[in-house]
Specification:
Blueprint (H helix, E strand, L loop, with lengths): L1 H12 L4 E12 L9 E17 L4 E6 L4 E6 L10 H13 L7 E7 L9 H16 L6 H16 L6 H8 L4 E6 L5 E5 L5 E11 L3 H22 L11 H6 L6 H25 L3 H17 L6 H11 L4 E6 L5 E9 L3 H16 L4 E3 L8 E2 L1
Bound molecules: alpha-D-galactopyranose.
Alpha-D-galactopyranose binds next to helix 5.
Length: about 375
């Protein structure tokens, strides 16, 4: 990909680019916990968004996306969100400027092999590669955590998706052969070796994406806040669902809406599952890890209500095979991918059978991936 970007960039802009890339991610477990200051357990994957970039002497960003085969110009003196893929790039430039890191105009060429709209965080990949490209080009010394926070801010304030920190954090801090266990309050993290020769991780794309994703996401965040406010009346030290236990929630059950109760129940139980999953993985206890994955999906389906028919079909099909430890949706939900933990000698059999079963029930040909846990963003 590096050579392709280099050559295409030269053809388009008649100069040599610097090239940066940032990975997508798969979240193993810990879903909708990041913005509740809880735990997540993602890994960066060996699929990346690449950016070739060179400096301009004016304030114009000329941005070309190979994926969309489309060019667009944005004037940094007058940037405005357009509800367009370029918002991810321009948003990062705008937030960098607002945080005191001036960004010059630039010629930009983007290409990516992170599947779009599949819950694999193609958005964090484009944000983080943009941030690295802009800071590299303008000689700003900036630490990894600040990069992740700036990208999250760009997505919140410019793109309008009120996401947590997980995706950007792991796209920056990911490490080859490891998953990353992150405490989203302290932002301390632990790398946990992921030996895929012991158990297979197969990602299955349902190939559907239901449009309500981002509005429902922002709604879930509000419901969690409502729950926190209710619990706070009895336990003032609770500032996020991270601080709550089921007992606290039970105590305010009669004062909150039934839906809010279920949303909070998901988050509290998901934090417990995610905390347990780290020791399960460290001790190669795949039976337990699989049970936690299953519990996570059931809770996301029934209590958080972010699954959909196709995801449930894919998960049920996986679980009907006795060499599967566990399966669940990964990412925000409403479509995209499932993550499946499979006995290592049965990966091929699994892949064959899940394709048949899913197609039988939906008429859709799924796409399957075996990603490698990978390093975070870098200049090539
Ligand atoms: C999206 C968001 C993340 C996280 C997940 C759900 O991927 O970008 O911050 O909230 O959904 O776990």
């Amino acid at each position: 990909m590096k050579d392709k970007i280099f050559n295409e960039f030269r053809k388009m802009y008649s100069e040599n680019p610097r090239i940066f890339r940032a990975p997508g991610r798969v979240n193993l477990i810990g879903e909708h916990t990041d913005y509740n200051e809880g735990f997540v357990f993602p890994m960066a994957i060996d699929r990346y968004t690449y950016i070739g970039i060179s400096k301009r002497e004016d304030s114009i960003l000329n941005i070309y996306s190979a994926g969309f085969d489309e060019s667009i110009s944005v004037d940094l003196l007058n940037p405005e969100p357009k509800k367009h893929w370029s918002d991810y790039v321009a948003g990062v430039a705008v937030v960098l400027q607002n945080e005191g890191y001036p960004v010059s105009g630039a010629n930009i060429y983007i290409d990516s092999n992170v599947p779009l709209g599949a819950g694999l965080s193609s958005s964090a990949a484009i944000e983080v590669s943009s941030a690295l490209a802009f800071t590299g080009l303008n000689n700003h010394e900036i630490d990894k955590l600040t990069i992740a926070k700036i990208c999250q801010k760009a997505e919140n304030s410019y793109v309008g998706m009120n996401c947590g920190i997980m995706d950007q954090f792991v796209s920056v801090h990911g490490k080859k052969d490891n998953a990353l266990f992150l405490d989203c309050r302290s932002l301390n993290y632990e790398l946990v070796p992921l030996d895929i020769s012991k158990a297979g991780i197969v990602i299955c794309n349902t190939m559907v994406k239901h449009e309500l994703g981002s509005s429902e996401y922002n709604k879930r965040r509000k419901e969690c806040e409502t729950g926190v406010n209710a619990i706070k009346t009895k336990y003032p030290n609770v500032t996020a669902l991270r601080d709550a236990v089921m007992g606290y929630l039970e105590e305010v059950k009669n004062e909150i809406d039934e839906v809010v109760f279920r949303r909070c129940k998901h988050v509290i139980s998901e934090d417990e599952r995610t905390a347990l999953s780290i020791s399960a993985l460290k001790t190669n206890n795949f039976d337990l890890f699989g049970k936690l994955l299953n519990g996570s999906h059931d809770s996301l389906r029934d209590d958080y209500e972010v699954s959909c028919k196709e995801l449930d079909i894919m998960v049920d099909a996986a679980r009907s095979m006795d060499f599967v430890y566990g399966a669940r949706v990964t990412g925000g939900g409403f479509g995209g991918c499932t993550v499946n933990l499979v006995q290592h000698d049965s990966v091929e059999k699994f892949s064959k059978e899940i394709k048949i079963k899913y197609k039988e029930k939906t008429g859709i040909e799924p796409e399957l991936f075996s990603f490698l846990p990978s390093n975070g963003a870098e200049e090539l």
